[in-house]
Amino acid sequence: MTPLPSTPSRGQHSRNQSLSEAVLAPRAAVPDLPPVIHNGDTHKPVDEVSVDLAEHHEALIGDEFLNPTNIVKQPTLATLGETPFALDGDEIEHHRIVATEIVGGLQFAAPEPILQNAIVLLDPRIPDCEHLIEAGRKRGLMIMAVVPKPNDGSKADALLSYYPTAEALLEVGMHQVYEPPIGSKFDIVECATNLKTIENQQNLRFLGVVPCREAAVDFSDILGALLGLTCLNDLGLSSARRDKGLMKYAVSNAGLRVAKYARLTQGDGTDVINAVKELELEYPVVVKTPRGMSTMDVFICKDEKEAVQHSATIVRSVGPDGRKTQYALLEEFLGGEEFALNLIASPTTPRGVQVTDIWMYHKIETNGTMVNTYQELVDCHEKKYASLVKYAEGVCRAVGIKYGMAHCELKAKYDEKTKKWVDPVMIEIAGRLAGGRKAILAEATIPGWHPFEALIDAHCGFPVKMPPSFSPSKRAVQTYVPSDKNGILKSVQGNDFERLPTYHASSMLRKIGDKVERSTSLMTFAAFVWLVGDVDEVKRDAMRARAEFKVEVE
User: Fold this and answer.
1) From its phi and psi, is residue 229 left (phi > 0), alpha (psi between -120 and 50) or beta?
2) Is the pLDDT of residue 300 over 70?
3) Which of 251-260, 285-294, 394-403, 446-455 is predicted with the least confidence, judged by mean pLDDT?
4) The pLDDT of residue 156
5) DSSP-derived secondary structure for 214-249
6) 48 and 3 Cβ atoms separated by less than 8 Å
7) If residue 543 lies in a helix (H) or strand (E), which one and from where to where?
8) What average pLDDT does this structure show over 336-358?
9) Rounded CA gap, 165 and 10, in Å?
10) Which of 244, 350, 460, 539 is least surrounded by Cβ atoms within 10 Å, i.e. has the fewest?
């Protein structure tokens, strides 16, 4: 390495400048030093002292540092009162600190506006909405609600949390709410156009569209595509995630077992007779609307007369989603017990699709349909549920669910010999968050699992955080409290559900003065009660909640 040049003073040899002197002080400022004596001989030439740059500083020092004029222009990371050089170097009290060279006369372009990330909640409900808003806020997202069918006040006040108004959504923390113009029906193209306008005017950037209930499943991905999003489920299978006939077709094409079925289109229901013969079915059979929800318009028909009657009614009617029904669906009646498996889908998860929690349904037959009594959370890692997990994940892939939550309902039989549930068969699957506060209960009982945050992350394309295990630490139960009478509700007894030791939450769906009816579908129940605790305790409290609830009507 070439040593730094030295400057002799008054005919005597002096030592070379140190690196700090060369960089931070002009040569004239370096004081004269006494001659260096080697081996006691003052007449011998003094050896030049080489400065090892690597020893003093990691940076490469060029010739420009030797010129005092250039030194002023050079920026340095040194701070006042400290030295960036080796500990054995010179101590310096102050360093020259230059941030940048100032140049006048430049015109800087105005910076691009910073876009605010946002997400759309399609047709939200208040209980889930509160958790989704909190998850979005943690990620710095603006939350936009889209309500296809605004609540015009015709819904009972007790149902406001399930069919919220724009005001109710804003009160719980929603940033903005979009509703179709007054007097017009929801149009997805018009909605996308308005959202794109809002996005442009408010410097937003929508990252995902989250369907929050059954009726929003088939067009949530279509809305996302119109917004130009990339985290979408398979658009070619969007109808198969909603229409139960197309759903069975897609799952069957994937090599998975489905129930025998036929589409019935005759307005008088007479095509039931030929369909039953061709499918080689025996009564009872199931007749249902193809785009139903919440167990609405699902009938177990014990004979041909009932099947013809219900088929004709469905074909001539408007479905629960408000659309004209094109056909009725005839299915074989499946034996066994019913389960619901909730799944998370994201390319960032190990398998792409994974079961997070399993709920076992306990139903009884009432008024020609199967009615819930209670549903309990079970451990999805137990070996006896292995075939259900594998089947449900296959169904999820078959209908093109790649982002977000899925809710798969199926039936299976218990094999006493192997002590396992076998022969699972799909009832239906939906690409949405499970209703009935199941995600809330799963979060309360499965350590480390945050389903609402996972849902937001999946639809935004963020990595989804998975817990090491989905085994619940406690048992959770949703109890369905029925009304056994028809009429105007006059009085209620046993609705103080907080008395139950395992009480977690409850919701009264009817209040005094409201019309009540015998419970045959989810939204005709008088109340829901959610319980968390030990297995025996929650089952005991579930029975008490149902048995001790009494209504009087007029």
Assistant:
1) beta
2) yes
3) 285-294
4) 64
5) GGGHHHHHHHHHHTT-S----GGGTGGGT-HHHHHH
6) yes
7) helix 535-547
8) 95
9) 94
10) 350
Burial (CB count <10 Å: 0-12, 13-18, 19+), residue 418: exposed
- Listed residue (275, 373, 291) closest to 332, CA to CA: 275
Reading the block at residue 517, the tokens are: 């009816």
Q: Which residues make Cβ contacts (< 8 Å) with residue 235, sequence separation at least 6? A: 221, 222, 225
* Model pLDDT, residue 19: 45
Question: Residue 161 has what pLDDT?
Answer: 81
The phi, psi pair for 538, rounded to 5°, reads: -70, -35
- Specify whether the CB–CB gap between 147 and 170 falls below 8 A: no
pLDDT tens figures, 457-472: 999 999 999 999 999 9
- For the whole model, what pTM was predicted? 0.76
Q: Which two tokens stand for residue 121?
A: 């909640």
Q: How is residue 479 annotated by DSSP? A: E
The bridge status of strand 404-415 relative to strand 337-345 is: antiparallel
| Predicted confidence (pLDDT) at residue 90 exceeds the cutoff of 60 | no
Comparison of pLDDT for 150 and 229, the residue scoring more = 229
Residue range 195-203: average pLDDT?
A: 94
Average pLDDT over residues 431-451: 93
Q: Which residue has the tokens 């009972």?
A: 156
295 Rama class: left (phi>0) / alpha (psi -120 to 50) / beta: left
Say which amino acid occupies 27: R
d(CA 126, CA 137): 16
pLDDT digits (tens, 9 = 90+) for 247-257: 999 999 999 99
Instruction: Sort residue 308 into left (φ over 0), alpha (ψ -120 to 50) or beta.
Output: alpha
Q: Which residue has the tokens 């009507």?
A: 553
Instruction: Go through 87-117 and write b for each residue having 16 or more CB atoms within 10 A of its CB, e for each that does not.
Output: eebeebeebeeeeeeeeeeeeeeeeeeeeee
Q: Is 152 exposed, middle or buried (0-12, 13-18, 19+ CB in 10 A)?
A: exposed
Q: Could you please report the per-residue DSSP string of 61-113? A: P-GGGGSHHHHHH------TT---S-TTS---S-----------S--PPPPPP
Greater pLDDT, 477 or 321:
477
Structure tokens at 320: 């629960």
Cα separation, 391 vs 424, in Å, equals 7
> What residues form DSSP beta bridges with 373?
none
In whole angstroms, give the CA distance from residue 380 to residue 384: 9
Residue 442 and residue 342 in contact, taking contact as beta carbons nearer than 8 Å:
yes
